[in-house]
Design goal:
The protein is of the alpha/beta class. The protein is 46% helix and 12% strand. β8, α9 and β9 (232-235) form a beta-alpha-beta unit. The longest helix is centred in the C-terminal third of the chain and has 19 residues, at 264-282. The radius of gyration is 20 Å and the shape is globular. The two termini are 37 Å apart. The model has no long low-confidence stretch (mean pLDDT 91).
Length: 337
């Protein structure tokens, strides 16, 4: 959501976001939802976009790399920063740092299933320690004036589904919105997301909650809302290579009509705009390396994608890369005739 030119508090902007008929948020994704990608998604239209997760421990140690992941006060959209960690004090201090730097909302990660995160008692591991999870929420909520949200999973495994009980405790501690990835930690990203398992939350909590997992189309989003009773949806991996997807889903909620994706010619322009934004953000050498995964995602399903990826993944000259991308999309256009 673009910010108005007038001074508006993050709390008011958050309320405005949630007043939409069906909010559509971009999920935080490590190594993906950096500032350039958030800017691309926002340029097409989205209710809100969330930063990649930021380590609270690294932030309080003033890691330069970590600081680059947080929201910039000059960003022209609602600034939501996701924090991950296991220490209530560090999480609270990190929240204060982000508030001082211009964040409108702080989100707490309690859903990341990655081994290196849960082995540090962070992310989804916090769902196995409800007392610590609540202490972290309480510390962060009390530390800042801006809204605090949280992202969780259904539970650790099928025998320990505790998202409902945790959601109630989080609301009591002052959380203002919950996003739920409808898989357990042990599922990681396999199997199907079970949207129906969070249906009863509507009768348990008063705060809004978002449904996340396996939402790839407007039809998926409508089905997820019907089964989960959620306030809105959060889109993650389905947006890789499709920064326009969230806007398509938002329009489907309004019209129930499928909005066509950009033409191949338009996609070429989108890719190059994103590429140059990444170069400006990271610098030429690192920017090229960072963008290789995006070239792979953008080319998924297109004619000649395999050969294109082989070429682009070893390229390190900007002019060559531009010509390579241009030739690829021209070839795709001809193949589509």
């Amino acid at each position: 959501m673009k910010l108005d030119s007038s001074e508006v508090s993050g709390k008011d902007l958050f309320k405005k976001c949630l007043s939409k008929k069906t909010p559509v948020f971009l999920a935080p994704m490590a190594g993906v939802t950096d500032a350039p990608f958030r800017e691309m998604v926002e340029s097409f239209g989205a209710t809100a976009v969330v930063s990649e997760m930021v380590s609270s421990e690294s932030l309080v140690r003033f890691s330069k790399k970590t600081y680059r992941r947080i929201a910039d006060k000059n960003d022209k959209y609602l600034k939501i920063v996701q924090l991950v960690g296991f220490d209530p004090k560090n999480m609270a201090e990190s929240a204060i740092i982000n508030e001082d730097l211009g964040a409108d909302i702080v989100d707490i990660n309690m859903g990341c299933p990655a081994r290196k995160i849960v082995s540090n008692d962070s992310g989804a591991a916090l769902m196995t320690n409800e007392d610590l999870a609540v202490k972290i929420v309480d510390a962060v909520v009390k530390a800042v004036k801006i809204p605090v949200t949280v992202k969780i999973r259904l539970g650790w495994d099928n025998e320990h589904i505790n998202c409902i009980s945790l959601a109630k405790k989080f609301e009591e501690a002052g959380i203002q919105m919950i996003a739920i990835h409808c898989r357990t930690r042990n599922q990681m990203y396999s199997g199907n997301a079970n949207w129906s398992l969070i249906n009863e939350l509507r009768d348990v909590i008063r705060i809004p909650y978002l449904c996340n997992g396996d939402i790839k189309t407007g039809e998926d989003a409508v089905c997820a809302i019907e089964k989960s009773n959620a306030t809105g949806v959060m889109i993650g991996r389905a947006a890789l290579g499709k920064p326009w997807l969230l806007n398509q889903i938002m329009k489907f909620f309004d019209t129930h009509e499928v909005i066509q994706s950009p033409s191949l010619e338009e996609q070429f322009c989108i890719v190059m705009k994103h590429f140059y934004t990444v170069l400006d953000f990271y610098g030429e050498l690192q920017g090229i390396r960072v963008f290789r995964k995006h070239f792979c995602w953008y080319s998924t399903g297109l004619s000649g994608a395999s050969r294109f990826r082989e070429t682009i993944n070893s390229a390190d000259d900007i002019s060559f890369i531009k010509n390579c991308v241009e030739s690829f999309y021209e070839g795709c256009s001809k193949a589509a005739l």
